[in-house]
Amino acid sequence: AISFDKNPFESDVLSNAYLTGVMSVEGGYKTAIIVSDYGSFVVRQHDQIGKTKWVVKEITDSEVTVKNGDAELKIAFKDDKDED
Fold this sequence. Notes:
Elements: H1 12-15, E1 18-24, E2 30-36, E3 39-44, E4 55-59, E5 63-68, E6 71-76
Antiparallel strand pairs: 1-2, 2-3, 4-5, 5-6
């Protein structure tokens, strides 16, 4: 039998995610807009991504770093060259 300590499909929510915008809001906080096949997420630092266990660790002008336990993922703007 195969068993998993965590849902093996959970990371799929962000597997093809990309950043569409970063805004600085009052107080110097940054807000990011992340898009994936599962929807769009408007997040700030320390926000949870939807119903996943991924949490926003840091937002810069060019990427968002999210964390799930020891796993870390960087989400960047989509490269326009990927578009046909």
